[in-house]
Write a structure and sequence with these properties.
By secondary structure, the protein is of the alpha+beta class. It has 3 domains: 94 residues, PH-domain like, CATH 2.30.29; 70 residues, no CATH class; 63 residues, no CATH class. β3 and β4 form a beta hairpin. The longest helix is centred in the N-terminal third of the chain and has 28 residues. The N terminus is likely disordered.
């Protein structure tokens, strides 16, 4: 893998010092996609309501009857309009929360929402993809950043390697992870309690930010967490924050 990466770097000329490459999702594409989905959902809603009423027994029968009592074409036009408005709201939210990556010869900046994280070249060991997330590791093997990424992965990898940053298709430490169960031996003091708490909050889809905060607390103890379905896998960094 190291030889393949070096070969790729030889093919990609190094950008001139001071040059900036920025990768970001098109806000218009995100918004238009969400609007289109909302319009389709709105157009299908009256059809689904009529199908529900045709069943011998159906949930939400009252709302379905109320909805279909509106005459056409006002009903379909109204549900499409509501779907478009909902799509606009979702699209602007998704665009606001999309990740952009600015690559320079001296540092890389990850920007999302109204915040940005800047990492100097010497702080960076490797970037890699973990499902739909972009992960950045430091020289000590601890995670510096983990963000949901909707960018084209090939374009992102090409941009990073063109500036001389290391890229892997998966976690280079993947083989070192072991599945966590309550009472797993060998963890730093306090890590097991944090993992128990994190296992609980991950059951609630609305607690993603709290799970993220607990991940940060574990990193401060030198414990890296990888999620797989509802399971947590851990890796203890020797000489890390908790070492």
């Amino acid at each position: 893998m190291e030889e393949a990466r070096n070969a790729h770097l030889r093919k990609s000329p190094r950008p001139q010092p001071g040059k900036v490459t920025e990768l970001a999702e098109s806000a218009w594409v995100i918004v238009l996609f969400c609007v289109a989905c909302g319009a389709v959902a709105g157009a299908l809603l009256p059809v689904l309501a009529r199908l529900l009423l045709a069943l011998p027994w159906a949930p939400l029968e009252g709302p379905a009857e109320l909805l279909t009592s509106v005459p056409e074409p006002a009903l379909t036009l109204g549900t499409i309009a509501v779907g478009v408005l909902g799509g606009l709201l979702l699209g602007f939210t998704a665009a606001h929360e999309s990740l952009s990556v600015r690559v320079r010869d001296t540092h890389v900046t990850l920007a999302i929402r109204d915040s940005a994280q800047e990492f100097a070249r010497e702080e960076i060991s490797v970037f890699f993809r973990d499902g739909k997330q972009l992960v950045l590791l430091g020289p000590d093997g601890l995670e510096l950043a983990r963000e949901h990424c909707g960018l084209n992965w090939r374009h992102l990898a090409d941009a990073l390697t063109a500036y001389g940053y290391a890229w892997e298709e998966q976690d280079p430490y993947r083989a070192e992870f072991r599945r966590w169960v309550p009472g797993t031996p060998g963890l730093p003091t306090g890590a097991d309690a944090l993992l128990r708490a994190r296992a609980q909050v991950r059951k609630d889809e609305d607690s993603a930010e709290e799970a993220r905060e607990l991940r940060g607390e574990l990193l401060r103890l030198g414990v890296v967490v990888r999620d797989e379905d509802r399971r947590q896998y851990v890796r203890v960094v020797t000489g890390g924050a908790g070492g």
